[in-house]
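Dear support,

I submitted the protein below through the web form. The confirmation email said the job was done, but the results page showed an empty box. After a refresh the structure appeared. I'm attaching both so you can tell me whether what I see now is the final result or a partial one.
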Amino acid sequence: MNEIKHIIAVASGKGGVGKSTTAVNIALALAARGLEVGLLDADIYGPSQQLMLGVADGVRPEQQDGQYLIPIQAHGLKTMSMGYLVNERTPMVWRGPMAGGALAQMLEQTLWGKLDFLVIDMPPGTGDIQLTLSQKANVAGAVIVTTPQDIALMDAQKGIEMFRKVDIPILGIVENMAVHICSNCGHAEHIFGAEGGRRIAAEYGVALLGSLPLAMSIREQTDSGRPTVVAEPDSAVSAIFLEIADAIRATLAAGGEGVVREFPAINISDD
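What the results page shows now:
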């Protein structure tokens, strides 16, 4: 892990907001800029990157010295996922410490080699996996994915506060499913509300890295194992992912200026 320059966590407060789709496309966008990129699927209970990257069922990582895992190459990314290690129908009926141990093993015992970025697709919520990551890795920053919907924004706030408490800076917000454009008539409609991502970004003083549309093509391409940045590199959606990747790079290249980092308030009394 000493050969990894930047570790980026892509997280959300709740499931169903497109976090994994965003994570894989950000990783591919960074790779499209000529960088060496790894992708770790840290969603122990519901790994999805194997499907999204088009890695065939039954593919297993090779081992070295009976201890280390060799990452699986997919679309130019070095990848590791619990989906490679278990059958797709095997539920991970594990308590938190077991899941945290699995994350630590994949993180520390994978032979990543030299990487400019390791993108970690986090599970939704604010639990054991997030705490394990903060303890085991020097995370450069977190990207929070949300939809404009009020209930999603409320959970995104919890995610931001959680990363602040473990001293992981927030690189910015990605607003997913911001607008739907009808494929028949071209009418644009804000199904989940408007400007929600911008509001929460302004409230916390973080950057709005990008707003992605609710588009059938994103879902179809990801389900087919060819995410948008690979399937349609010249599309408008791919351009948004590239802008998000460029914004992340620019912030980290500036020495972290532009990220929000806040320590939790500690009160000491004689009681």
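Response: this is the final, complete result; the empty box was a page-load delay. The first helix runs from residue 19 to 32.
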